[in-house]
Design goal:
With 537 residues, this protein is mainly α. It has 25 helices and no strands. The N terminus is likely disordered.
Length: 537
Amino acid sequence: MKRSTIFIWFVLCPLLSFASSTLDSLLHVLDKAIDDHMIYTDIREKRIHDLKTKLQAKDLSPDSIYALNMGLYMEYRPYICDSAIYYLNRNLDIADVLNELDKQTETRLRLAYFLASTGMYKECMDVLDGVNRKTLNPKYLVDYYNTYGHVYGDMSFYSQDKRNSSRYAAISRTYKDSLYSVLTPDAKQYLRLKEYYWFSIGKIDDAMAINDERLAMTEMGTPEYAAITYYRSLYYSRKKNGEKRKEYLALSAISDIKASIRDNASLWALADSLYSNGDLNRAYNYIKFSLDNANAFNARLRSSQISGIQSIINKTYQMRSDQQKEKLRNYLIMISFLSVLLVIAVLFIYKQVKKVSVARNNLQAANEELKRMNLELSESNLVKEEYIGQSLTLCSTYINKLESFRKLIHRRITLGQTEEVFKLTRSEDFMEKEMKEFYTNFDNTFLHLYPTFVKEFNMLLTDDEQIVLKKGELLNAELRIFALIRLGIDDSSKIASFLGYSVNTIYNYRAKVKNKTRVSRDEFERYVMKIGAPSDK
């Protein structure tokens, strides 16, 4: 099983390379499979069309019609419930006309098994009443025992009456035990029964060992692969491993879609699990796709199972959508307000810079005695001018970005593209990118002013508590906090606002660093204020 799974993932590698984990990778592949599901549907529709074309040929013998009907049943079995039943009933009519017991038996057993799978237990038992065990051809014993074991097993699982449920379960076990007498140990059905037996008595590892063996004999995109991986998810559910359970539900759902199987329990089970973990968008998309498939398949059992989950997910999705719309309106108001404040701030800074420049020029012309002091301060002035220039550049850049974003939002709202606006404002990538750029600018500017800050700061710490920056880092969170303190900002709430952290986080960082110092904790920040800089020379 491990080799086949690894092979599948290598085949899907172009779709998986950008994901951060196995489950994320599989969910991306599943999303792509759902987008492309019509490709797989068209393949099945073509096979159905070819069979129907052959069925329209003249002078077909009853045996040929029977064989073509059985082929159409096999195509419709996981695709459209009503059509599958229709072609089995046609074959039952043919078998009755021909008075061939083998054909009658084969068709009745297939029909009964299918009816039980779709929740029509009364109809199933009516069909099975027409199969006489005493006159049964031994070659149909496997299907006979399997069908009875299946129908009573399902009736036990879905029954609301515990007494009947126990009785049905006992009957199902009896028929499954009978299967062992007619199956060889290397038969696929024997392995499936053995796997179910280990699972039913709680020996999950033994069941998984057989599951590995069966999975190694199947391929992705087949009903068998979907069923085996679905059972695998049940084993991980019993082991309380939710992550692996979702992985195998995803593999099962992918295989269902590639095989164009509409009776896909794995996808709505995965949707339910993702909903419980807060992945509402995927849960909504998956349950909607599952319900569409269930409606197309037209089996009452699946539709009723899915509808309850869908109702909960739909209500939650709508509630979150309304909340996001309200947040969007608030963000738009906030952006507009901040844009006005930013323009005012830039104008104020520009005027102040002009005043400083004029005052400096007047002082240089009026007092020659200040030349010596001006020379000593020239380096500091250059640094300050650079800092102001960078501030102006940043302000201008942020104004342009805010204006572009405002125009984009206004244009999308004007065009009625509220869903696009929702997607734009939901993503946090923009904010993370801007904060990263802000930190980089701050780090560069601060270290230009205090180039030896990191070295001197580490000298205040014990040898085994030195701060070692990662590759590409100029400052980390701890250093930025004390950099702001070096600049004279020692209020934790202001530091928290500046760096985008909570006040408790700032308190914790400050206390943590003070516990590492080689000087007095109470004197530590006073020593930080003495760290040298060009302005101190």
